[in-house]
UniProtKB/TrEMBL annotation:
This is Pilin. It comes from Uliginosibacterium flavum. The chain crosses the membrane at residues 7-31. SUPFAM superfamilies: Pili subunits (SSF54523). It holds the Pfam family N_methyl. The keyword Membrane applies. InterPro entries: N_methyl_site, Pilin, Pilin-like. Keywords: Fimbrium, Membrane, Methylation, Transmembrane, Transmembrane helix. The keyword Transmembrane helix applies. Belongs to the N-Me-Phe pilin family. It comes from the Bacteria.
Length: 175
């Protein structure tokens, strides 16, 4: 009688292990980039308050002269007279507003407890525009926001240093 094969041969098991190894070698770096991008996204979420301050102040006053700001730790808090206050988080060390054109600068914490993969390339700008032009005296209309990291091709405003591989999608294009 013929004997029915039970189980797998050694070569079949080695092929499966090799395939799993190849998949892991491809997936691990992609996952690491994904985790950094998710930490970077926290900064964009926190910057929504600064964007609101710029939009409201510009629409009400036509300038940003009245915007006072402060960066603080959770333990000290901000002064009552400050219009925009940012409290430092684990991944974001500062968010500031340029008084001349309303650009919001997000600076990431690159210490060991922050996002150390960024190194010195740890900034991204959020650029307010009206009709694809920077905010300027007399500008009127709806404000559009553009995110600019190192991979962004949008022409108006300052460009951040955040590498394209770590930038969220909205910070990599010309939009």
């Amino acid at each position: 009688m013929k004997r029915i094969q039970q189980g797998f041969t050694l070569i079949e098991l080695m092929i499966v292990v090799a395939i799993i190894g190849i998949l892991a070698a491809i997936a691990l770096p992609a996952y690491q980039d994904y985790t950094v991008r998710s930490k970077v996204t926290e900064g964009l979420t926190l910057a929504e308050a600064a964007k609101s301050v710029v939009s409201e102040t510009w629409q009400n006053n036509g300038s940003l002269a009245t915007v006072t700001q402060e960066v603080t730790s959770a333990s000290t808090g901000c002064a009552a007279s400050v219009v925009y206050c940012f409290t430092v988080t684990k991944y974001v060390s500062a968010i500031s507003i340029a008084a001349t054109n309303g650009e919001v600068l997000v600076t990431y914490n690159v210490t060991a407890s922050g996002i150390n993969q960024l190194g010195t390339n740890n900034t991204v700008y959020l650029i307010p525009t009206i009709g694809n032009a920077a905010l300027a005296a007399g500008s009127q209309g709806n404000i559009d926001w553009h995110c600019k990291g190192a991979a962004s091709t949008y022409a108006v405003g300052s460009t951040g240093l955040l590498p394209g591989r770590y930038s969220p999608t909205q910070c990599r294009s010309a939009v």
